[in-house]
Design a protein that fits this description.
eight-stranded parallel beta sheet, oxidoreductase, 10 strands, about 280 residues, 10 helices, single chain
Length: about 280
């Protein structure tokens, strides 16, 4: 099991870069005070990893919050993603410059291909490789790539992705994909770890929450980390952001980890990476 220590602990990517295993997701947060406050609260609470994307339309706010924080830029792991309509070699290079410009930062810590757009993601990856070699990005990766997407990408590229960010929660584990990523030394990362809030209507986790005197959210996030999966719970509420980071004073037993694994129903909340049209 990968070592889990504290809110600023990290997992090591395949290129030696340390990626904090707990981050703040900002999907659906507005570009103004909502996202700025959320990022500042997270940084104040000890988070050192912020995940955005061009399609979220809040990169300006994220950048402002990071630039005005009392924390050195180099101590914050900043992630963004290239959107589907920007995919392709030259358009990805342009999209990257636009993302940096909106963030008003000199570099990104991680840049991801947001979805595996057929016929485009290999050229998009070549652009990411170029930016990585130029040290504009510390690590490069993908999001929503199934095993066959990864196999195709790896067969046609020089650099193996450092990260694969997937929908991941107790109802959608995709253990085969996790195993494949582990074998290729690709760090697995969760988006929508709370099933977009639906996790709270699953009373099946209430007993575990009671047993450990924790919230259902804390149980799920701790399970993420103990499975070696980086997680980026999204919230714009200060109390929730702080609560989501309160994961380091307990450990789930092997038995309870296995129990949560049995809840898997291969049930997606978001789009299917093999069948999306955006």
């Amino acid at each position: 099991m990968k070592k889990i220590t504290d809110i600023q602990g990290s997992f090591l990517l395949n290129n030696g870069v340390k990626m904090p295993y707990l981050g703040l997701g900002v999907y659906l947060a507005d570009n103004d005070s909502e996202v700025i406050n959320a990022v500042q609260w997270a940084l104040d609470a000890g988070y050192r990893h912020i995940d955005t994307a061009s399609i979220y339309k809040n990169e300006e706010g994220v950048g402002k919050a990071i630039r005005t924080a009392a924390i050195h830029r180099d101590d914050v792991f900043v992630v963004s993603k290239v959107w589907n309509s920007d995919q392709g070699y030259n358009s990805t290079l342009t999209a990257f410059e636009e993302t940096l410009n909106r963030l008003q930062l000199d570099y990104l810590d991680l840049y991801l291909i947001h979805w595996p757009v057929k016929g485009k993601y290999n050229d998009t990856w070549k652009a990411l490789e170029k930016l990585y070699r130029e040290k504009r990005i510390r690590a490069i990766g993908v999001s929503n790539f199934m095993k066959h997407h990864l196999q195709d990408l790896i067969s046609q590229s020089e650099i193996v992705p450092m990260v694969n960010q997937m929908e991941f929660h107790p109802r959608l584990i995709q253990q085969d994909l996790i195993d494949f990523c582990n074998k290729k030394n690709i760090q697995y990362e969760a988006w929508s770890p709370m099933m977009q809030g639906k996790i709270f209507s699953l009373s099946i986790l209430d007993n575990l929450a009671k047993k450990y005197s924790k919230t259902v959210a804390q149980i799920v996030l701790r399970w993420n980390l103990q499975k070696g999966v980086i997680t980026i719970p999204k919230s714009v509420k200060k109390e929730r952001i702080i609560s989501n980071a309160n994961l380091f004073d307990f450990e789930l037993s092997n038995e309870d980890m296995n129990y949560i694994d049995t809840l898997d129903k291969n049930q997606r909340i978001g789009p299917d990476p093999d069948n999306f049209n955006f």
